[in-house]
Amino acid sequence: MTPRKIIIDTDPGQDDAVAILLALASPELDVLGLTAVAGNVPLDLTVLNSLKICALAGRADTPVFAGCDRPLRHDLVTAEHVHGSTGLDGADLPAPAATAQDQHAVDFIIDTLRSQDAGTVTLCPLGPLTNIGAALQKAPDIADRIAEIVLMGGAYFEVGNITPAAEFNIFVDPEAADIVFKSGCKITVMPLDVTHKALTSRAWIDGLRAIDTPVTNAVAGLTDFFERFDVAKYGGTGAPLHDPCVIAYLIQPDLFSGRHVNVEIETASELTRGMTVADWWGVTDRPKTAMFMGDVDRDGYFDLLTERLRTL
Description:
With 312 residues, this protein is of the alpha/beta class. It has a single domain (4-309), classed as Ribonucleoside hydrolase-like (Inosine-uridine Nucleoside N-ribohydrolase, Chain A, Alpha-Beta Complex), CATH 3.90.245. Helix content is 38%, strand content 17%. It has an 8-stranded mixed beta sheet, with helices on both faces. The chain has a two-stranded antiparallel sheet with strand order 8-9. Helix 2 (43-56) links the parallel strand 2 (29-36) and strand 3 (64-66). It is globular and about 50 Å long. The two termini are 21 Å apart. The model has no long low-confidence stretch (mean pLDDT 96).
């Protein structure tokens, strides 16, 4: 089977790191490049972290592109309180030998979609949608060339994790999210409703350490650090591994279930800015714009992660 061509748009982030490692470990996927965006931490760190993750995977040849350093219209909000000052606290990853490409990430996205056959490249945004929104603004013609956008962001039943109403990735740049959801592209969403069911466990982290490779040890350290925030906030026993849901869906879509619904992004209200308004119950006649996932086979998900991470 021909591998599926993807571009991973990312703001690493411990869970981004696991998602990228999963993609690089999966022969079903052809990672054309990583496009870094400001989000969990500022752009200089998301670029550096992207390079570090590729080096950890033994894939320093994977090109990394620096993208937008701020949202389209507002100041940047970051999440060091969750991810630590580096964005990848929890593992001591060495400085990479590779450097980022000279081309801007937005131009790389546009040029790649124009040069590849239409409908063959999937975009995988794991952070704020600034780079994707900027690309669609700059080159509206690419919308018809995108095979699918599979993104982590938003929430419905789980409401918000950065404000009472908004999930972090959408809240950081709701204007960009609005562009994406109105683009007419095929969109699949991994919201908090799914990712909050994909919780790490002590047994899973200990199992990674028992495998005892540089990759599994690094992921164990990253998730150990990542857990501390969510355990304190939600009172559970693990942390949601949000972003790998995007990659897991591409590899094994039957792990997930959801509904094709209308999704709108609130951009104006001070109270609910960044809210993902998903018409889960079909109470409007607005057009259905996205597959909005609602459930995940947790055991199957973590089995897939273990299976692939141990191969790197």
